[in-house]
Amino acid sequence: MADKDGNILAKDYGIGIKPPLQTFPVKGHQSAGWGMQSRLSQIFGDDGRTIMLAFDHGYIMGSTAGLERLDLVIPPLMQHADCLMATRGALRTCVPANHHKAVALRCTADTSVLKDDMSFGSAGVDIEDAIRMNASCMAVQCFVGAEGELDSLRTLSYYVNNGEKYGVPVLGVVAVGKEMERTTRYFSLATRLLAEQGAHIIKTYYCDNFEQITAACPVPIVIAGGKKIPESEALDMAYRAVSEGAAGVDMGRNVLQAECPKAMLRAIRMVVHENAKPEEAFKAYELWKKDVK
After folding, report:
1. Among this protein's residues, is 165 annotated catalytic?
2. Rounded Cα–Cα distance for residues 118 and 121 (Å)
3. Quick one: which H or E segment has residue 224?
4. Catalytic pick from 4, 203, 227, 293?
5. For the segment 46-104, what is each residue's pLDDT rounded down to a tens digit?
6. Dist. CA 192–CA 196, nearest whole Å
């Protein structure tokens, strides 16, 4: 019990001093609840940008080059990423629980690459398990324009509704199937549609006129790395994307299949968080690559 005789009378109430301006750096979420903002702050830095390391490929692709042994490959890279994008199976078996990184948890159950039409997925991880996994956000695959479009949007709505209930953001992933176009018009439609459905973050591909897409999307966009391209080209793509309004990158194969993944992730950090030019970042990559070897 508190000692009333030893209690010091409070004096400094700061009367007449206005509260500090509450500015939240993540686009579109100034009015979000405290829990939602807290999780978004785990993903994005004070600059409103993020570097996600994606290693969730196995849930539809199986063992992939550079991701054969996640328990050996991922832990040494984590310090250079802001957020880990993975399945619950990979997290539980290959990532130490004391990693202290944000987690974008892949929550949808989608068809494998063996199917010609991959657009027929469903909810996989429920909201309770996402919370148990301490997810910073829930990643949901959406197939705008495909046969399974409506089902994937229903799944997105399920996660958005539950995410709002518990303060867990949703990352809407714009999936591009084999027969789907990759144009400014398509990505502008898909990103805006997912944001209007309530997704808190959007993941999509970089394309021509990308600044139009980011300008028209009311929430942060992070770009997918896609298939492996030369390291200098990947750094240039990252630079152009953030220069044109992207809030960061979510790269997997362009890191994990690089000649030196750790050096590549450090170079991406230079571009995203330090506004380094791609040429400067590539030179640093070449030097760090030698040091690692």
Report:
1. no
2. 8
3. strand 221-224
4. 203
5. 999 999 999 887 666 677 777 788 889 999 999 999 999 999 999 999 899 999 999 99
6. 6
